[in-house]
Write a structure and sequence with these properties.
Length: about 200
């Protein structure tokens, strides 16, 4: 009975997704290929798209998520979140986050409105191509790709080195790739139980 229970428990665990998240979707993250002297620091970009959007292969959005009288308007459900920032090195092992944009689907906009404009292709190799513009009223960025190689065309903020005296930060090159999830502790535990059961059967 114990052996059967162990196998069933392991099988149930293995049937679970590798990661459990509060919001389902596919995460794409920025991978730098070439830095730029015109950037205040290395950039970071994380975008989560719905499974349906990725399966469709292409996504075009041009909207403003705004709130009026405690009611928010989100005319889409494909881009679930977008986080962007630059890391400015303080020289002591710490960093300042600059030009920060944090858009979450169905959450109040940080500065009254979030405008998003993008035309992207989800490629079979887990890469993204196309063009992306995001603006949260306080900061914005614009980037485009040739193939899968994206280039930052412009990023500015109301404060900080990318924005003062109309200074723009630009030039960094990189790719947006699917972030492969790490196996969850539950899945690892299931694999361990299954391996132990098969090992016990072999010894017999």
């Amino acid at each position: 009975m114990l052996r059967i229970t162990s196998v069933l428990f392991a099988a149930a665990l293995l049937g679970q997704p590798l990661t459990q998240t509060a919001q389902a979707g596919v995460l794409y993250t920025w991978h730098q290929s070439a830095a730029s002297e015109n950037m205040a620091g290395p950039m970071h970009l994380e975008m989560v798209f719905s499974d349906a959007a990725v399966k469709a292969g292409n996504l075009k959005l041009d909207f403003e998520a705004a709130c009026y009288l405690d009611q928010c308007i989100y005319p889409q459900n494909s881009l679930l979140s977008l986080k962007f920032w630059l890391n400015e090195d303080n020289g002591d092992g710490t960093f300042n986050q600059l030009n920060h944009i944090d858009f979450h689907h169905r959450r109040y906009p940080q500065y009254g409105s979030d405008s998003i404009k993008l035309d992207v292709n989800f490629l079979p190799n887990g890469m993204l191509s196309g063009s992306i513009l995001a603006n949260d009223t306080n900061s914005h960025f614009i980037m485009e790709s040739i193939g899968t190689a994206f280039q930052m065309l412009d990023t500015r903020s109301d404060a900080g080195p990318c924005g003062q005296l109309d200074v723009s930060c630009y030039g960094e090159l990189g790719e947006l790739r699917v972030q492969v999830p790490e196996p969850s502790s539950a899945a690892i535990a299931g694999l361990g139980l299954l391996a132990a059961w098969f090992g016990r059967r072999r010894r017999r």
